[in-house]
Amino acid sequence: MTVFYCSKCGIELTGDLVVLPAVPDVDDPDDGRDKKSGQARSTVPRGCCAIDPEPWGAPIAWGQ
């Protein structure tokens, strides 16, 4: 099982999580989208985590 902790204070942020082999696909990303905030629903079921192999977000090291 996997547990995430705060890197600053070390407090446990999650309970035991099941690691999925991949991020689950979504048929329709707008299905279940919050009408007020516009946020899409989670693709990872509660109690699980997955590592996305595609780079996203900062930090970005251009030219490497």
Strand content is 5-15%
Oligomer: single chain
Question: Could you give the distance between the termini?
Answer: 34 Å
Query: From the helix content, strand content and strand pairing, which structural class follows?
Result: little secondary structure
Q: Give the averaged pLDDT, no decimals.
A: 85
Our count of helices gives 0
Rg, rounded, reads: 15 Å
Encode the helix/strand succession as letters: EE
Question: Order of strands across the widest beta sheet?
Answer: 1-2
Largest sheet: 2 strands, parallel
Shape: extended
Q: Which percent bin holds the helix content? A: under 10%
How many beta-strand runs? 2
Topology:
Layout: E1 18-19, E2 48-49
Parallel strand pairs: 1-2
Overview of the structural elements:
The chain is mostly loops. Helices cover 0% and strands 6% of the residues. It is built from no helices and two strands. The protein has strands at residues 18-19, 48-49. A two-stranded parallel ribbon has the order 1-2. The N and C termini lie far apart (34 Å).
In short:
The protein is largely without helices or strands and 64 residues long. The protein is built from no helices and two strands. The protein has strands at 18-19, 48-49.
